[in-house]
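ping. complex inputs:
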Amino acid sequence: MALYNGAAHAYPNSMKKTLFLSLMLMIPAMTIGQIIPSISKIEVAGFPERSLSVDLRDSMQKLVGQRYDAETVDPILRRIETEQPDFLVATRTLEDTEPGRIRLVFVMAPKTPGAAADSNVNSQYIVESAEVKGVTPDQYSVTLHDEIQNMVGLMLDQMKVEDIRSRLRTEPMLKGKYSVSDKIERGSQPGQVKLIFEAKKMPWALRVTLGNKIDINGNGIHVGDIKDTDIVESVDVKGVARSAYSSSLDSELQLMVGKRVDHLEADHLKEKLLAELKDGYEISDKFQKGTKPNTVAIVYDAKVIPWIPERTFPEVGAYHPKQGISAFVDGNIYKGLTLGLGTDGDTLTERYKGYTAGYESRMLGTRYVGAKIRFSTFGLLWKRQTLELLDVSPEIPGAYRTRQAIEPSLAFALNRTISATAGFNFVELHMMNPQEHWESAHEATASFRYLSPKLKSGSGTSEITSGYEVRTAAHNLNSDFVYTRHYWDGGYSGKFGKNQFKFSYLAGRITGDPPLFERFSLGNTQTLRGWNKYDIDPIGGNRVYHFSTQWTYRFFGVFADNGSIWNSGDDAVNRSSIGVFLGPLKLAVPLGCSSNCGITFLVHID
Amino acid sequence: MRAHTIIVWAVPVVLLCFLTSIYGAETLKVHLNGEQLHIEAHDLRFLSQAAQARLHDGATVIYRFRLIVSDSRNGNAAAEYTYHCVFSFDILEEKYKVSRQEPGYRTASHLSESAARDLCLDSLMIPAASISTNSPFWISMEYQLEDRQSSIERSDSHSVLDTLVNIFGQRNKTPQPVDMIRGGPFRMDDLRKSK
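pong. complex structure:
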């Protein structure tokens, strides 16, 4: 047995060759291991890139094509931190498809954990795919398309998603035509999600009318291109002196300056302003473009609320199967000038059609006094039941063909809840019988009305109204009719979230012989619903009372009516009805009705 | 009195009872933990349908809470505290995450909906030192889904009618409705004893 004693020995030639080749091969391998990759693309995650300054973004883009090393990248990183001091910044490299090239990602995270970025539990998942539904890629820019696709393979970045959604809706081919929303769905692999942007075409009517004015997106409707990222340039309160609200509120308002638009805060301060002005004003807030790009000027416009309530003609939009369609509109068309027209077969026993015109001022220099004058002219239609009953009721003034009136009045307000009116109503009636002739119903009128402020109770609000009106016609007013008409009405309305509860009452009493338009009537789309006034009181009555109770949940509701109409000296018959409604559509059931009645379909637009 | 008259008057009475039951059911309670009053409202399902829809689309929703201390039921605010809770829904694990933003950041994940709600409410605090020791007081809690994440607004184009309602029903951005619950009267002495 021979033992190796450690003596030197030579490598065989073949082994020398192998060693040499190995060394030769190691040299390029070592060189490659030290290759510094070049940057193929710059990306920003966790922050909208376009919110960085243009100069900084330019500097970042200049990194493209350069070798990636800390000395090159660190100055950019420091600049981002300086520009966005509330964020931490780090870099991350991702392999590109080409060898030796990388994508450099500046990852930004808020120092104080933010709402959207850090708090979204789904930010831990990898984006498996990203797509835009509803539009084709040629409808938005290639850059945006690339940015969307670059999110694939990265963790879900909520801020980036919001940034891209926001940019999608401002793409030239989508702006004003599409709304854009985003969502994520489960991916096909564990820990992965699919990112979907959904673009939906707006209705044609909106595209052609408001498409250029508004910007509908997944997060709301923006008027005049005001964005959440815009900075408040100024806050002004117009319409009231600075001394009308507190210095602390003024400070709060001015604190919004220099910050991003916060609609919630703006609304909150609007409410505070209203509270300090003691509800004597109505305030509209306007968000206007500032003098510089991406800035907003907020203007709170305060206007005095008149104490005297609006006294336009009662507006009607109704349908009753036995009384037909009623549609009458009336309103202020220009600086107090009022105009109304239509036909109404719902309110009275007559069906009138025609127009009104007038002038109404709810503040004659002061909130205490207002004035109104109105002219109206109506043609009349009568139901067969009314005419037949008039034929056998000679004590009741007959039907007329035309009704014209001039109604001047003054209004006085004691405060914002109590008001009163006094005036005249000169009515001329073109009577049909016994032969056609004109008669006058000249009335002196007065009224008193209480309208409570909105009473807050818990999360709900309540309102109480109460009113009394008297109209009296006498010979010394050059009237052919002599009568006095008293009328009381009022009610309670409470709104608690989506629930609304209403109770209303009315009562009336007439002495003397009034023309038909002053007589009371029940059994239409608002009173004793389900009953037909031409069955129960075709010529109306001179005594009336009525109670109505209604509960509404959103658009659905139920109601119960109870009331009576009769003539003095007769027995009052109490009638009731119940029903359900969905918005303006109602189904009413008269209770205790024996003939020619049943479930009635009604329409009444409030 | 005829039968139908009784029915007519019974309807509003029943409705009033119903409304009373709705609005009487959810009241706010408090308990003292150290020197902080914590809010309890276990039955309060404040995450609205709109918020749920947004959460299930994978986004965050933010609720803003305003706690108001007053010396009577409808009295003026003696102290106010505002908090924000951020909710998100893990679409893979189907669990909730909730974060309170201020005054200190607190977060918890893998929660059921009710646990997320309760954790959010429990993190709303009122310093006991800000409340008089022996006077009765009321606490109101206003809560509101912040607009930014509103699902109502996101569903803006579901139909022409929806869109028109949204357009003409909103000024610039519709503030979400502010809901409120209230509890009281409480006394600090009683709360300290029950502690």
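Confidence is low (pLDDT under 50) at residues 1-12, 23-33, 113-117, 211-224 of chain A.
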